[in-house]
Task: inverse folding
């Protein structure tokens, strides 16, 4: 699926964000409004994620981070959680060949050791198989929480300090980010959230310090190329000052 010419023409002369992060919200409400099971909403959401990744690659985005499953999502019903895990494992395996064909590098972020072993293996295989790809990096945030990431970073810093391999006076913003899950991925330029909710929901708390927020009124299963292009247009309408006054 390629981006229609009429959408590409809207991006002419615009700055494409290097890293787009997405809170994919609304699968459950999409399903409820249609009287179908929540897992069907998640399946449709998976298709929307494929559209996002392909469109982002085609318009020149270098990194995409998606909030696939939060540390808080374990509180959902056991049937929904197990169904989600199976759906994500199936998606990773089924999409691997196309990710390779599209030159996309797949990585995962979060407390991965707490995931089902088969899902851990699927992500490990996908990351290894796509490690040399460079058109786009897809960062799947799964069993992820922004606070958990910061706590895990602090614990590793404390361990290195106690071991004498890190001095307290050497801790800075730059050194701290090396302890995050994916320090090689630059901070997001644009954060998109669907479903109209105005919350960060514990996503990339350290990394989104200067990201531009775009909240869309649609549910995630309805996200398409038009939605991404519209978000990029909104991004370009902002003046990114990073704390400085306009000059």
Result:
């Amino acid at each position: 699926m390629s981006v229609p010419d009429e959408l590409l023409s809207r991006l002419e002369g615009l700055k494409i964000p290097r890293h787009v992060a997405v809170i994919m919200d609304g699968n459950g409400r999409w399903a409820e409004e249609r009287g179908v099971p929540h897992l069907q909403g998640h399946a449709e959401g998976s298709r929307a994620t494929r559209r996002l990744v392909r469109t982002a690659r085609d318009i020149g985005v270098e990194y995409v981070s998606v909030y696939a499953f939060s540390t808080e999502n374990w509180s959902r019903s056991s049937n929904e959680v197990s169904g989600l895990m199976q759906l994500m494992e199936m998606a990773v395996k089924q999409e691997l060949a196309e990710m390779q064909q599209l030159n996309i590098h797949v990585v995962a972020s979060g407390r991965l050791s707490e995931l089902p072993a088969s899902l851990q293996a699927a992500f490990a295989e996908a990351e290894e198989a796509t490690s040399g790809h460079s058109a786009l990096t897809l960062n799947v945030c799964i069993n992820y929480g922004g606070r958990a990431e910061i706590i895990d970073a602090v614990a590793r810093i404390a361990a290195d300090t106690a071991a004498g391999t890190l001095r307290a006076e050497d801790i800075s913003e730059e050194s701290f980010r090396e302890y995050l899950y994916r320090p090689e991925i630059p901070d997001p330029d644009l954060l998109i959230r669907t479903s109209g909710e105005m919350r960060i929901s514990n996503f990339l708390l350290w990394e989104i310090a200067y990201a531009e927020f775009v909240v869309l009124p649609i549910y995630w299963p309805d996200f398409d190329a038009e939605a991404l292009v519209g978000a990029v247009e909104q991004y370009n309408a902002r003046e990114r000052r990073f704390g400085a006054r306009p000059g």
